[in-house]
Amino acid sequence: MPRIQNNKTKKTPPGWDRIEQKLLELTNKMRDVENEPHEGKRKVEALWPIYQIHHERSRYVYEMFYKAKPEDKISRELYEYCLREKWADADLIAKWKKKGYEKLCCLQCIQPKDHNYGGTCICRVPKGSLEEGKVVQCQACGCRGCASCD
């Protein structure tokens, strides 16, 4: 979650105005999801949209720094500002840079202590090795498959 703004305004890096609108839009979307009723849902199901928006916001910053066209890229200073101010998840982005984790949905899916027999989440299993027509959904974040080889 981004830090709460106070009366002391910090100087934002150049280029912030280009990405500010999208980040604020995603923050407002997150706020709406947090406030919507969740009666009739399991506890974990109520958190899935929050994880998805968090992932989307981090992916946006990642793509703007690493994948965007040269004229659309953000500066390193702005990228580090976004990470420092918690607009994006630095740990998740660090995993996306590693081979095999390019599509990782959340960090809970790769933590062995959270899964039976010290493995990883079912969403990390390639779809080709699962039964035909079987729908797989992660219990932690609601992902339907984030293996990089899919």
Automatic annotation (TrEMBL):
GO cellular component, as recorded: spliceosomal complex
Keywords tagged on the record: Nucleus
Membrane spanning stretches: none
Annotated localization: Nucleus
Domain of life where this protein originates: Eukaryota
Signal peptide: none
Single GO BP term: mRNA splicing, via spliceosome
Similarity section: Belongs to the BUD31 (G10) family.
UniProt name for this protein: Cell cycle control protein, G10 family protein
Annotated organism of origin: Tetrahymena thermophila (strain SB210)
